[in-house]
Amino acid sequence: MAVCVSGSHTIFMNRSNLKTVAVLSREKKMGVQYDLKKGQSRNFHELPSGLSMEVIVQKGAEINKNVEYPPLVFVHGSYHAAWCWAEHWLPFFSSSGYDCYAVSLLGQGESDAPGDSVAGTLQTHARDVADFICRNIRSPPVLVGHSFGGLIIQYYISNLGSDNLKEDLFPKLTGAGLVCSVPPSGNSGIVWRYILSKPITAFKVTRSLAAKAFQTSLPLCKETFFSATMEDHVVKRYQELMKESSRMPLFDLRKLNASLPVPPVSNCPFEILVLGAKDDFIVDIEGLKETAKFYGVPPVCIEAVAHDMMLDVAWERGAKVILSWLNGLEK
């Protein structure tokens, strides 16, 4: 059992439940706060390292007691945190009966930061997600990852197999959804394609993400993450949250790319959904197809949606595709 602190509460977290047992204070990490919606709670999961990971929880509505809905665990990408799922998708999926858990990786959101220059590696982030699932989720969940969060889930999947030790470290899943995910070979292929075929786009992406210009330029932030129809005041709110979400880089990209591609998976025992956005400024259609081919599934590409599918104007389009896919899984 892990002892964690949530806002003004101490949380004891174990495999069966989350209990509020005492009142303490916890220093907030983000200068701009995300206000939780009705039915949501902010908890903290203590990792074996002693560092705590923020988890925003929204329990599923009781719809059909004869149906077992797998828990959903959401993993964000760079410059985001658990709040990006809490805005629209947690209320949507919880209203459909699913218990929802959105984690903030170390060094992101309200999670603790390790004593290093980067938040972690593909391996450590995947293990942190696995540790949370192992100690808090009672039945095999569906993992949903966005952008680099999708790559973390791909590494998680690569560790599932017949090895009993790996099964102890990486609990079994019911399914996995990869949303605008970085492909298994990493983002270097995307970068080179942009340089050769779309040099202006390549410059903008590099300036926006590597130089963090999205943090100061509202038009560039909108072009990078959202549809052109997104209202500026909404983009501004998300821009401020993204500025505060990442206190350190999620990865050392050079070391990350050196460790790729993700190991292949043979005879995956569960279904994988590979979902992309037609207007994605970051992950191109070739990257989407690469991921789908890697898992032997057809890619699903949604029209008129940008990279931040879960926050974009038409956020419900992606959510409905995932819900339809979830309803098709064996429950």
Automatic annotation (TrEMBL):
Write out the GO MF terms.
Answer: carboxylic ester hydrolase activity; lysophosphatidic acid acyltransferase activity
Write out the GO biological process terms: lipid homeostasis; phosphatidic acid biosynthetic process
A Pfam family name for this chain?
A: Abhydrolase_6
Its source organism is: Phaseolus angularis
Q: Which residues form the AB hydrolase-1 domain?
A: 72-312
The organism's place on the tree of life at top rank: Eukaryota
Q: What is the lineage of its organism?
A: Eukaryota, Viridiplantae, Streptophyta, Embryophyta, Tracheophyta
Q: Provide the protein name.
A: AB hydrolase-1 domain-containing protein
